[in-house]
Amino acid sequence: MKKLKNLLQQIDGKSYKGYKQIQGRYFFPSYELLIDYVQGDPFAAPSKIRVRIPHKTRAIDQEWTSTNKRKVFAEDVMTRKVSNVIQHSNPNVHGSGKSGLVVIDRPGQEILERTAVVFENGYTTVCLTVGLPANGRRINGKQADKLFFQVLPEMIEKSVLSITDKEIDEAVKLADQHQVILDKMKEEGFISFIADGATLPRASGVSDQPMKNAVAFQSPEANRVAIKLPHREEPLTGMAIRKGIALIVGGGYHGKSTLLKAIERGVYPHISGDGREYVVTDPQAVKVRAEDGRQVTNVDISPFIKNLPHGVDTTQFSTENASGSTSQAANVIEAIEAGAQTLLIDEDTSATNFMIRDERMQELVVSEKEPITPFIDKITQMRDELDVSTILVMGGSGDYFHAADEVIMMDQYVPHHVTEQAKQIAAKYPSKRQTLEESFGTLPARSFEAQSIQARKGKKEKVQAKGRALILMGRTELALDAVEQLVDPSQTNLIADLLLHLSKKGWLDKNYSLKELLDKIDQQLDEEGLASIAPFKDQHPGELARPRRFEIASALNRLRTAKVRDLR
Ligand code: ADP
Ligand code: MG
């Protein structure tokens, strides 16, 4: 501690580069401070520090970390505490550039495994980003002294050392409830559960906060189930969607997409008060949409698309600029390849010609001339042959009535069970559509080769995330806008680091199928933690949060530089 104080005094007023000397480890009364990375300039990317509070100082109950889920929820609530304290404090440390900045990776509404706060080896480690104070480009040692000896200790005091056991207990209880819902879903074959009373709509298109005064979710009686939860007297009731084909219908603006969106996000847990804390979806559910313009590399889209003009081979289909239908076909195949058990599809983001083709069009355009086998002709095969379920929003066509196992109609934001009516209507107007295909087709097995990752930019290898939806790899852009279940910029950070890590680790030289590769990645993240893929060992790992294997696969699949081999 004294050492840091002296150093700051010595370098006060000197050139900013002098700050490099303070890199290192310092002991404070209630924690250790690790200054891992010192910025080169007051305007450059700020410095990275960690604060390690021994569990002797702030006890972490063993119960809070007895399962991985509990640990993630407990760390999450601690992260939010630190974040709130930082947001509400005014450090009053001034100077040029980023002087006096203090930030932690702030979670959104989802509860994700992240590196911001970790309970490990007897410590609570808090990862922060700080701007070391300067006057112009000179070190301001006095302000730095204030930052390290006043501002930071106070922030830690008010957060890690002040959070009550009760606050952490509450998060752990929610973790247990979430797990019970998931277990029950698995046992009963539910792919989604939406609790009565849930708030599905969000405050606005740019806010993930719950809408105020929204119509609370109310399950239709026929779909209602009750789940007995720990830490709760009454069983939790809500709507269960079973494995199979579920169709969500209803008039425009009656809440169909809002319901599907909540289902989509239900693959992640949400914080208490979000309104979706008891909306839980099969974690292997993947949103599939049209995404024209995307890169596709060596994907067998022949189950959906054959006989393209000019004899283009669709069993190993590649393009730098996919159309609506080819992109959606590739998205379906890739999701299944990565292990999706449920597909989530909204008409609003689908290519019409991919989803439906009616009898009139079949008569006009003979099937030899039409490359597309629409999703409607595949949906039951996927269910019966591949055990892949679909939840589909479709307000514009009744073609799916006959295929659906369950039809739910949204009416003024309230769902109704209309399966029997839909079936009667389907029987009354038998479809004259022809179903052509007999079986789904062969499944893909592809391997990504090492040259897929070309991170060289000048001499330095660089892969960098720029917000949630963009990764820069050397000079090429990897756009993830349409990967809707990638929800947090820190997940994108992790994927960026992972791309570099993969090439360093040599995993792309080994002929692993994509599925095996994703298994390997999941295993490493499970066993060695998120920080294990960060570029610098035993240092601040950066702002990382865990994506699912599907979002990792989505990034690989969209690489403009992908080199992919068919293993079949
Ligand atoms: P659809 O897909 O059926 O056309 P949306 O799901 O897009 O309809 O919903 C239309 C509008 O209604 C959106 O602005 C949405 O925020 C709002 N909305 C959806 N569900 C609710 C609800 N439960 N309470 C209040 N407003 C809602
Ligand atoms: Mg809609």
Automatic annotation (TrEMBL):
InterPro entries: ABC_ATPase_C, ABC_ATPase_put, ABC_N, MRB1590-like_C, P-loop_NTPase. SUPFAM superfamilies: P-loop containing nucleoside triphosphate hydrolases. Residues 1-161 form the ATPase of the ABC class N-terminal domain. Residues 166-438 form the ATPase of the ABC class C-terminal domain. Pfam families: ABC_ATPase, ABC_N, MRB1590_C. Residues 462-565 form the MRB1590-like C-terminal domain. This is ABC-ATPase domain-containing protein. It comes from Halobacillus amylolyticus.
